[in-house]
Amino acid sequence: MSGSELFSGVQNAIALSDQGNDGPVDELFWLLAMSKFKPMVVRDDSFPTQKAVEEVEESILKAVGGEVVYRYYHEVRSAGRSGTFVVTLEDAYLRANVYKSSHGRFISLAVSAVATERCTELLTVLRNAMYKAPAKDSAKVKIAFWTRGKHGNAASHFRQVDAPPWGDVRINYEDTCPDLSRMARMKPPLDAGSLILLYGPPGTGKTYAIRALAREWGPWCRTNYITDPERFFGDYDYMYKVASNDDWDDDRDDEEEKEEGKAWYNLLVIEDAEEFLGADAKAIVGTNMSRLLNLADGLLGQGLRLLLMMTTNEDVGKLHKAVTRAGRCLMRSQVSAFSLEAARTWLDAHRIDPSGCTVSRPTLADLYALLRDQEEAT
Q1: What are phi and psi of 209, to 5 degrees?
Q2: CATH pick for 140-334 out of 1.10.1140.10, 3.40.50.300, 3.30.1390.10, 3.40.50.12160
Q3: 127 Cβ contact list (under 8 Å, min separation 6)
Q4: Share of the chain above pLDDT 70, in %
Q5: pTM above the 0.85 mark?
Q6: Which CA distances in Å does 58 have to 61, 142, 369?
Q7: What's 79's DSSP letter?
Q8: What is the DSSP string of 316-357?
Q9: What is the CATH number that goes with domain 3-130?
């Protein structure tokens, strides 16, 4: 390829970018590299950053020098600004793509030069200049919400969910479910069963407790919420994909911990699971009940580092004996309403006049309603 042809290709790419078109970015990168380097080596890398695309370009030029010969920035709905650009150096070419996913902002780099050592050197310099793990909000926990799509494919959507520290909510359960404080202190390895069963009337705070536990277990356990449990237990492929899921960004920053192979546990949360746990569950849902039991402590669940947390409003006496038998549940705990004395202690701790509580067995939802009423009144 002649020099005039190469120059014409670059000029055309720049013209396209000026017109708001993404342009042939990869073609340009390869065109430049193949025309100059014989032999040619290409190495790539990608990593998270907190820099905006303009800051990434500035950081690259500051770190390694060079000149930008192609640039295209564009807005992506709900994801912010992304961008792609090509940088020429005396002895290398570099293509950078800055994009945002549900896990945060990332940089994808490709470097071409004559020698592998030069590519590695440039990538190392650039990673050191721009790498930064996504910021974590300590008041939230990341949860994967799973569903089976209309074409039968299992898909997850990540969301940051408000989650209080256990120390802040312990008072909610000291009288109604003391076992929860023991759950909050759990750490692997966990040997006795994988099923955690929370049962009790509506409004007692089962969901609130799950959010706090998910945050407390965050350093070793990832939380998955099953939105369609009847499909989950009815479709083996869907169930096994979620149970054995490893498709998460590893948020731990401790590289030594990763090298030691300290694998994550997966927590699967299924709420309002009466049809799978009731005394007549076997007759109603058939094989789904068998799969639940197999996943909990049968061969199906072996080696998966799995916790299966299920909630129900039913009393334990109405649950299937196969679910509640000794050895199957890691934890089986009732979350009850408050005694009147405990309710008044809770209200006093929150500086609410206890005389306002007239229900003999108030739930946690009842007490928070009184708290909101007082806050609105003031």
Answers
A1: -65, -40
A2: 3.40.50.300
A3: 45, 47
A4: 72
A5: no
A6: 5, 32, 52
A7: T
A8: GGGB-HHHHSTTTEEEEEE--PPPHHHHHHHHHHTT--GGG-
A9: 3.30.160.110
